[in-house]
Specification:
The protein is mainly alpha-helical. Helix 6 (118-125) packs across helix 10 (169-178). The chain has helices at 14-38, 46-53, 57-64, 67-88, 99-116, 118-125, 128-131, 134-149, 156-165, 169-178, 183-197. The protein is elongated, with a radius of gyration of 20 Å. It contains 11 helices and no strands. The N and C termini lie far apart (63 Å).
Length: 200
């Protein structure tokens, strides 16, 4: 017997409901992403998201549980898209570019990503087990592989750690909000360290 989240048999019109649920989920995620392109996540309320999506507030809570749940889902989607881009996408991020070029492009793209999702990433940072999760392992491996391919010598794990520290959500937030630095300045720091570690 088919069930929905273990709560019993599907109603006769369930395929329509499943389609509606998927459509509403997509509307909410797209609305949140559009709003985040216009202003910081902290300024975006649940009311803003449901108004932009054209659905009721109850729909958001049924689909995601909370505003935070929606933001985590958005983060997960964007993580998958970024991994796809640097593993299989076009240059300069993807595998057809030279290692140093890819490393520079990765840092710049990841900085934009971290700035967009900084509130959710900062919350994840509160839990050490979540902070150094499977996503971090993929990023670390990617940076380490690029350093090795660029001919970098020495402790590649430590050098990858040093580079990734520049992309940490708490660090990026402090540099921008606390020290008044810009994303371009932070990208320049990433570029400089990447070039030094690669012997350029």
């Amino acid at each position: 017997m088919d069930t929905v989240d273990g709560f019993g048999q599907l109603p006769v019109d369930a395929p329509h409901e499943r389609g509606d649920a998927a459509r509403n989920r997509r509307l909410l995620l797209d609305a949140a992403r559009t709003l985040m392109a216009q202003r910081s996540p902290e300024e975006i309320s649940t009311d803003d998201i449901v108004a932009a999506a054209g659905v009721g507030k109850g729909t958001l809570f049924r689909r995601f549980g909370s505003r935070a749940g929606l933001m985590v889902e958005l983060l997960d989607e964007d993580e998958r898209a970024m991994q796809q881009a640097f593993m299989f996408g076009p240059p300069p991020l993807g595998p057809q570019a030279a290692p140093l070029q890819r490393l520079v492009a990765f840092g710049r793209e990841r900085l934009r990503f971290v700035h967009t999702h900084r509130s959710v990433l900062a919350e994840i940072n509160r839990d050490p087990d979540a902070r150094y999760n499977a996503v971090f392992a993929v990023l670390h491996t990617h940076v380490r592989v690029l350093l090795a391919a660029a001919g970098t010598t020495g402790d590649l794990d430590a050098q990858a750690d040093a580079l990734l520290a520049l992309l940490d959500a708490d660090y990026v937030t402090h540099q921008i909000d606390g020290r008044g630095r810009t994303l371009d300045e932070l990208a320049g720091a990433w570029d400089s360290l990447a070039h030094k570690l690669c012997g350029n």
